[in-house]
Write a structure and sequence with these properties.
The complex is a heterotrimer. Chain A is α/β, with parallel strands linked by helices. Helices cover 41% and strands 18% of the residues of chain A. Chain A folds into 2 domains: 229 residues, Response regulator (Rossmann fold); 161 residues, Rossmann fold, CATH 3.40.50.2300. In chain A, the strands form 3 sheets. Chain A has a 7-stranded mixed sheet with strand order 7-6-8-9-10-14-15, sandwiched between helices. A 5-stranded parallel sheet of chain A has the order 2-1-3-4-5, with helices on both faces. In chain A, strand 1, helix 2 and strand 2 form a beta-alpha-beta unit. Chain A is globular, with a radius of gyration of 21 Å. The N and C termini of chain A lie far apart (46 Å). By secondary structure, chain B is mainly α. Chain B has 2 domains: 299 residues, ABC transporter involved in vitamin B12 uptake, BtuC, CATH 1.10.3470; 100 residues, no CATH class. Chain B is 75% helix and 2% strand. Chain B is built from 17 helices and 4 strands. Chain C has one domain: ABC transporter involved in vitamin B12 uptake, BtuC (Orthogonal Bundle), CATH 1.10.3470. Helices cover 73% and strands 3% of the residues of chain C. In chain C, helix 2 packs across helix 8. The two termini of chain C are 41 Å apart. The chains are: A alpha/beta, B mainly alpha, C mainly alpha. At the A-B interface, helix 1, strand 2, helix 3 and helix 4 of A face helix 2 and helix 16 of B.
Amino acid sequence: MQWTAMTRIAVVTLTAAIAAPGGAKAEQLKIAMIEALSGPAAQTGIAFTEGMRYGVDRLNAAGGFNGQPVKLLEYDNQGGPTGAAEKLKAAIAEGARIVSSASSSAVAAQLSEDIRKHNLRNVGKEVIYFNVGSEAYELTAEKCHFWFFRMGTNPYVRIKALVRAMKDNNVLGEKIYSINQNYSYGQDHEKAQAQFVKEAGATVVESVLHDVNKIQDFSPYVAKIKASGAQTVITGNWANDIILLIKAVGDAGLKVRIGNTSLDTPGTLGNAGALALGSYLVKIYNLEAGGAPGKAFIEDFKTKIGHYPYSEEPTSVFATALLGEALKLVNFKGGDIDAKAVALALEKAKWESPVGPWSVRADDHQVILPITISEVSRAATYKVDTTDMGFKLVRVVPADAAAVAPSPACKMQRPG
Amino acid sequence: MRIGLGRVRSWLGLAGVLLTLLPFALSPGATGAATSMLIAALFALSFNLMIGQGGMLSFGHAAYFAVGAFATVHAMMAVERGSLWLPTPLLPLAGALAGLVVGAVAGYFATLRSGVYFAMVTLAIAELFHTLAPNIVGLFGGESGLSAMRQPWLGLTFGSAREVYGLVLGWAVLAGLALYLYTQTPFGRLTLALRDNERRVAFLGFNPHRSKVLIFTISAMFAGLAGGLLAVANESANYVLFGLGYSANVVLHTFIGGSTVFLGPALGAALLTLFGYVTSDLTRLWLLYQGLLFVVVMMFMPLGVGGFALEKAKTARSADVSRSAVVYGLRVPALGLVAAGTVFVCETLGVLLSRDYLAQTERLGKMLPISVFGRGWMPNAPITWLAPLALFALGLLLLRLADRRATADSMAESDR
Amino acid sequence: MDFVLFSTLNGIIYGLLLFMVSAGLTLIFGMMGIVNFAHASFYMLGAYIAYSLAKLIGFWPAILLAPLLVGLIGVAIERGMLRRVHKHGHAHELLLTFGLAYVFEETVKMLYGNYAVPYSIPADLRFPAFTLSGADYPFYRVFIGLTALVMFALLFWLLRRTRVGIIVRAAVRRPEMVGALGHDVPKVFMGVFGIGAWLAGLAGAISGAFFTTSPNMALELGIIVFVVVVVGGLGSLEGALVASLLIGLLTSFAAGADVALADLGGLVGLGPAMKAIGGIFTVKLATIAASVPILVMLVVLLLRPSGLMGDKT
């Protein structure tokens, strides 16, 4: 039995019982993490949640907020938007004022809309949606709103950094093959790849979308890649779809370089094996980056959580650190928490990560952050997945260079 | 049967009163869960019209549920825009209508086949919806789905969980009643005959295919209504609703509850929805327990929990009560012990083999205790494995005792 | 041209793999009338067990031993569970296997985690079998295909040329009669179930190392395998082979096909109109390659429910 969840329920009931008669008591800041903790999507959900736990612990080590420790509530979204919607109701009922989630874009769209509606109906009791990893571009474009914050990357940010770094390192080539999963995330990737490959002076020779995590055999696609004569394959594929793609490319003896966004997911390198060598990865953080502060961070994380934060964990850690900075800008003097003030403070806050500054852009609430490019290599300092390979840092792209202009589709209505 | 009818009515009346008062006793979060239970219950009832009454096993019933949800969201969006006048409480009717139309078309083809082939056709139809829906953005909103907002009506804002619960309860009771009355009509009786002996129905002068299409359509209509209620409750619909998981869930719910008793499926659906809601935050393994529960019920209670209870209630006479009380006084704790043993082992294994625990052990050079049932257990201590084994063995022993007692009782019975 | 050649080869070998998994499913259905929803789980179990064993006893012994263990699991399920619920009818058996598939998947997640496990073929097996106009064709892929062919030959011989085969085939058609002749029909059933599980386990053990071994591999393959069995005709081994190859080739070519419905409409002059409607008409076939088999199954079910080679409905 997950002890944390059990104690959580007990503690929540107790605090509710104690706090009920008072009323004038300081409101404790509760952050609800609604993620896939079981089911197929759990592999990334758990990593994001671990980062969140670590981040909230750090906030509390620095004194908490509003005279109390910040509390992290964890909910399993039961694998989909319906479950997430239900857990959101529970989280709000338990007093969460900041709701976070990361992986599934379908869940993110649901939560974002639900929170927007909740805030319309409950003025004064608003909730902030502090998303740490969903990449669907529309969240900061057509669907952007004041209460939504994307505290991670989106496909445009990642592909811009990836393509430019590959170009500067002379590994981009001239003919690019673009292969992505057929859903909003993959479609965003396809558009971003087309745009930035063109800007880099290369050509996308062919572009294909395929079913998400349903294909057993990628060799037909490899046959297409071969026929196209591409030198580089850029893809936003994740989980099985990237493993199988790398294996199929390697087994066909095709000499192409792969640029991807999810090689770090546990199991990926272990499965792809030596065939993954030379592939490029674009990610928020690389274990080798950040000098002494970076080293201190990853060692401390390993001590507290159990492993190095080489996958999705840094995103939620850094995002909560920025939140911590924002919380320093507001003071509720031990009274109720005003979510609007926190949201406005988030727009102003700045935090210095080991690789550079993090801040939120007020126009669309997209976080502006530095980004790292790595190469799968045996020369990497930190080996992952019990292989002899790891992610060798290629370069850090500073925040301003990584940023992509806000979408004109975002028409944010700010509360008066 | 006749004798019990009056008592059944008063029980149902009491249940009705309790259900109505329920939200006043629950937090908004729990009220949301109760709403989901009602929706799942109605969905299971609609499903059972086909299998329990008509003998048609559908493996794609979620298709009609999802179609209903989307139709309702479209109606809700139209109301929001002002291009349609429809009071919020009547929105689910759009779902029912869509379920009816799609069900009639799909049903026409599916019912051309029977048995396994019928199941396969329904599975294929649902899968086609599931794979094609995200590609049709205008209709299904792509991966992020569609979202709308409930509008106030007659002074009701439909903004609180309580009001939504009331709306869903009203529809669920109405629909449940309609479904029950349907089984009492001559045509409802004919449905049963179709299940038992299709050829005879044909000889009686009815067209079996036409009758089956009708049953399919009615069932799909109620499934659409249930989907519409979900859409009203969540103010959204997403293509994942078409997924195999939702179709599988309704099968699980129906057969655990018992498809031969009218309210059995509703009971199963409500209980399992509650089970998921409560346990998913406690343990990552809740899906495993749900599956095990299903297998155990299939093995030992072929008629489901509802069927089992009804059978017992029917055969029980006052003289037997004390005797069966002894048998069940043994059986219930015995099952509890077996379950506890299973949970114990699974939870220990689940943690012991997890990536984090392995990494932690490697780093510390020693194992840390795993907490199960609120106490730490060392994985290398024999007690950690002997304790669940003892629970398990004790449970089995008690079960055997109960069985022996039951056989002795029935032998005594036949001697008399 | 290269593309056609590669796609054909890929399609055939993927089809042969599908055959290994579906052979057992179709035989079990043919004999016992059970649609075994847990059949693809045997494929998954084969891969996971082989992965665990390979670390202990090496790759080759593991892929021989793992399928045997899966076969034993199959036997245990037939004897201990399916036989007990047989009296409640086929629908009940189907539901039980459905629950078992669920339990297997969750158990694997509990024991191995949600991630794909690093089960892969030994490095010395990673060499090209031959080179076709500049691209290598992996040896292991050919090995998968050959194994499947050998299995087909073996099964065919067993069923058509041996006494056991005669009894099995007879038990499919007239179980009561075979029983009356003094053969132990339940034992025959158990044997067939075990062999079916063994074959699926073998397919998993061999191909899990080449593709990936992850908890959702059963679900991913499960539906395709049903398609194969239905299209081939439930109960027909030859049908399963033909349908496997058909589905394999279809998925292989669909992935490479850059056509949309609107392009087909263009042939009859509806192209522009369909493009204007957009939506489903402009989705490229390559994009929805995985739903092609399902569409095929639907059409077969509606037009010819006995499948390509089935003889009874």
